[in-house]
Amino acid sequence: MSATNDEVHAAIKQYFDAGHEYDVILDMLSTFHNVNMSLRTLKTRLKEAGLYRRHNYSPLLEVRRAILTELEGPGELFGYRTMWQVLQQKHRLRVKRDVVMRLLKQLNPRGTALRTRRRFTRRTYHSMGPNYIWHVDGYDKLKPFGLALSGCIDGFSRKIMWLVCGPTNNNPSVIAHNYINCVKSIGVVPMRLRTDLGTENGTMAAIQCTLRHAHMDHYAGSSSHSYGSSTSNQRIESWWSFFRRGRSQFWMDLFGDLRDSGNFNGSHEHQCLLRFCFSNVLQQDLDECMDLWNKHRIRPSRHASCPGGIPNELYLLPYRFGSRDCGFAVEDRELDVFPEARQVIDLSGDPDIEEYLQQAVEQHGLQQPQDWKTASELYITLKEIAGL
């Protein structure tokens, strides 16, 4: 079924705003929308829509204002390349990268000075293609504040498959639930799954092996999952390092300030209160981080056989990079037999405290937080109401 003109226009704008090059946009239209057009026609469509790469640059005042807005939150950790991408994709601003670099030096000189280049000795990483191996791991840096993260990255494309926050990442049902949701959303089970030795990964590993038991390749059945130490799970560990520098340090500092000011003591009640106020805001930030990462360009590395490029392109169009999709199709009915597929995961950590806090919000006419500032204000207000 052919797409309508409005659908084609929306798809072109979406791919253009995501930073894809013209030949990739044409490939995306052909592959996912059954629309074939010439490069000349695409350029005409873009011109008619007022979409340009190197024209109509945004006013410097707007760019400066957007950068200042980002610097008030996790954006204080961004380098100029990440900030340039955020300005383009989040704020819809057209600006040169060197302009962003100069503005960051002016507006955040301390952050610029702290971002020094570090060199590491790395092993060479090999992957046959997207869905050849997924790397899964938990992130515990925010656990002292009652928030635990779970993430998964595709080894070939470096596409983040999921990035979820909750009260725990030690519950096997929670990790398995994240895995099933991801597999169901893309309709593919990876050829291999790599995790550390934690017991929280046992259920997910069993599901992976079960889904792969009827296949005939070398990694079918029990060979489709492998355990290893956290330090050797290099793809996800490397990404957590990036995440620490570019995102989580902000939240660690914010929650640390609450603790140092005497507003957080690490108790179960305080953790539930902080989670109630911040979990949605933090998840929005994680979704934004994942979206920006999957759309940014990775430079080729001599430490990996995987090509450079944009994770979404590497994952969706592997043939452009001399590779193929290594995953295996899976239907919803195959996933629905697992209890974790139907299970409703309790993200509050304590339903009784969650219900009490929700009633307090309604009784006092308080608003749900939209950002870290309003979440902090709600936290202090509810803490006083609850007498914690």
Describe this structure as you would to a colleague:
The protein is an alpha/beta fold and 388 residues long. It has three domains: 5-48; 60-114; 133-342, Nucleotidyltransferase, domain 5 (2-Layer Sandwich), CATH 3.30.420.10. It is 51% helix and 8% strand. The chain has 16 helices and seven strands. The chain has helices at residues 5-17, 22-33, 39-48, 60-71, 80-89, 97-107, 109-114, 172-186, 202-211, 234-260, 268-295, 311-316, 332-335, 339-342, 351-363, 372-386, and strands spanning 133-139, 148-154, 160-166, 188-189, 192-195, 225-227, 328-329. The strands form two sheets. The protein has a five-stranded mixed beta sheet, with helices on both faces. A two-stranded antiparallel sheet has the order 4-7. Helix 1 (5-17) packs across helix 2 (22-33) and helix 4 (60-71) crosses helix 6 (97-107). The longest helix has 28 residues, at 268-295. The chain is globular and about 65 Å long. The relative contact order is 0.12.
Structure at a glance:
This protein is α/β, with parallel strands linked by helices. It has 16 helices and seven strands.
Strand order within the widest beta sheet: 3-2-1-5-6
Contiguous low-pLDDT stretches (5 residues minimum) are: none
Radius of gyration: 23 Å
- The number of domains is 3
Distance from N terminus to C terminus (CA atoms, Å) equals 59 Å
**Amount of helix:** 40-55%
The dominant shape is: globular
Largest sheet: 5 strands, mixed
**What is the CATH superfamily classification of the largest domain?**
Ribonuclease H-like superfamily/Ribonuclease H
CATH class of the largest domain: Alpha Beta
* Strand-pairing-aware structural class: alpha/beta
Count up the helices.
16
- CATH 2nd-level architecture of the largest domain: 2-Layer Sandwich
User: Got a strand count?
Assistant: 7
The multimeric state of the shown protein is single chain
CATH topology title of the largest domain: Nucleotidyltransferase, domain 5
Strand content: 5-15%
